[in-house]
Structure formats: structure tokens, C-alpha cells
UniProtKB/TrEMBL annotation:
The keyword Ion transport does not apply. This is Fructose-1,6-bisphosphatase, cytosolic. It catalyses: beta-D-fructose 1,6-bisphosphate + H2O = beta-D-fructose 6-phosphate + phosphate. GO terms for cellular component: cytosol. The keyword Amino-acid biosynthesis does not apply. It comes from Miscanthus lutarioriparius. Residues 13-199 form the Fructose-1-6-bisphosphatase class I N-terminal domain. It is an enzyme of class 3 (hydrolase). Belongs to the FBPase class 1 family. It comes from the Eukaryota. It is found in: Cytoplasm. SUPFAM superfamilies: Carbohydrate phosphatase.
Amino acid sequence: MDHAADAHRTDLMTITRHVLNEQSRNPESRGDFTILLSHIVLGCKFVASAVNKAGLAQLIGLAGETNGEEQKKLDVLSNEVFVKALVGSGRTCVLVSEEDEEATFVDPKLRGKYCVCFDPLDGSSNIDCGVSIGTIFGIYMIKDKDNVTLSDVLQPGKDMLASGYCMYGSSCTLVLSTGSGVNGFTLDPSLGEFILTHPDIKIPKKGRIYSVNEGNAKNWDVPVAKFVEKCKYPKDGSPPKSLRYIGSMVADVHRTLLYGGVFLYPADQKSPNGKLRVLYEVFPMSFLMEQAGGQSFTGKERALDLVPTKIHERSPIFLGSYDDVEEIKALYAEQAKSSSA
Ligand code: AFP
């Protein structure tokens, strides 16, 4: 038996312990956030296990009749898991899910002070080929528990209290920010616990990767086309950037956060607002990027300054290393200047 390794394992920083430590710095904290988060973690563990079993259990797509019961699609199942966990936490008030057309207002008897916007299984079109997929979430505080309206979730991203994602890949990694930096936790299957493995993640100031669906290039606007051209044919003597695009936002953003570079899903002539959703894709990822020292921009403004008017609103997004996003901002500023001249 390896006693040295065993001794090592007696002082693990689990995600709950980490959040408790963070919350204990706030004298007004009553443990509600920690309870909410532990229910999100429970949802992530459930989905991680379902994703792992997906091939075997034929959970991929509508697998038809199994034991007399129709198997649910993995994204529908994940949504049910998260809605139940979040309502069951007794700490939520309004939920917005990518899977549900309308927001869910929690029964007044079970209400707490948090709103959670989430995509239970983002990138689900990748499930069938085993590519990493993930859950994305953003958490807000409601203004008045007795008078909850949709406006409680239609807040600018900068008012978010916390955000994160859980990536179901070769390992299961949960990346979280509660507004004081970004930390990554990896699920230890033998313990069933998320352990702090990536403390205080900082994105490199400049990266060597760009990540975009180039198939949309014919519809791009001038700044995006110029930026991608610069990535391939830099004029300042720097090496060209590599292109990496998975088509699963959690996986693309995770790589961007760790290795640096820029992830873009711009507007184009066909989709003037881009593809990605403000409340449960753009805001949570932008919050993490800023907390890691990067930037996030919509083509017009800082992404977290956006004020959504609809729960499933979309926005163009450019996020990643500070200097790379700065270049994109300069190209948009140049265009705005030339069109006003
Ligand atoms: P799915 O959930 O339909 O797979 O969409 C994934 C996603 O919302 C996001 O995770 C990707 O970054 C983006 O769409 C990829 O979009 P394209 O396929 O248009 O590149």
C-alpha cells in the first residue's frame, strides 16, 4: 500500500469545502449559497454518470422502448435532473433552462433567494460521437422574494453572483467563479467528490489559438473577416494562430481558458444576433473569462453590460485572452469610425 499517497489524500480540497471557505469571508453568509451549489454539483454528478453510460444504456437520442419504457433523450433527462435538484434545494426562486420555453417560477413554499439560468447539456448534438459536452450555469440573487418577476432573470451579466460549467469529457471537470477568481475541480470517481485541481485559473494574456465555425465565413462582417485573416497571415512577424473548433461551447471555452486564445461566435448576415444564448451561454462564460483575466465582447459592448429583454435572447460573442479580444475591439472601432465618416 502506498502510505505516502494515502497521506496525501487526507487533505483534499473538495468543492463544498472550497465554497464554504469562500463564503465564510462574508459575515452575512447563512450557508444558502453553499446549499444551492451542492445541489448543482449533485446534478452534475448525475449527468456525468448518465453521459458515461450513454453508449451502453442507449440513452443517445430516443432509443425507443426499453423494458416497456421509452428512454429519454439525455438532454431532456439532464434538464429534469437539474430542475428537480434546484427546486429541491429550497434556495431558488426562478429558473431559466435552455430546454424550457418558459421560465419556471418555484412554488412559494419552496422559494429561496437565487435565480439560476442554465443549459443542462450544451453541445448535445455531439453526444453521438463522444465529444465533450457540458452544463453551463449562471446564478443571480432576486430583489424581492415576495414579488418575483421575469425581470429578476433579465439582469445584466455583471450582476451575476456566480457562474460555472461542468464538462463531461475524458474527465469530469467543474469550473466555478463566485466572483473572486476561477477555480477548476475534477470529479474523483472513487470518492464521488469534485477535488480542487486547477486553483486560481488565469488565462494567458495572448494566445495562439482561434476558435470559430469557419463554415460561416461567407456571411461574416468585415471586422471578423479581418481578424481571422490576421490570425492566419499575421503582419507583425508573429507566428500564425492555430485553428481549433469543437462545436461544443464548454469544450471550446475550457481549452481557451487553459491555453489562451479566442473563441468567437459572431453575428453574420444570416444570424444578425449570432447563435449563442445570452443567459446561459454568453453571460456565464463571459463572467468566467473576466474573472480569469480575459475579456468578453459582443461586437458592440462588454458582454456583461448587455441587458437581455427575453430569456432566450442571443448575442454575438468574442471571448478569451485579453490582448486577442482587444484586437477584435480595435477592428470594430475602426469599422464604426469609417462608417460614421
Ligand atoms: P448543440 O447543443 O445543438 O450541439 O449546440 C451547441 C452550441 O450551442 C455551442 O455549444 C457551440 O459552441 C455552438 O452551438 C456550435 O454551433 P455551430 O455548430 O453552428 O458551430
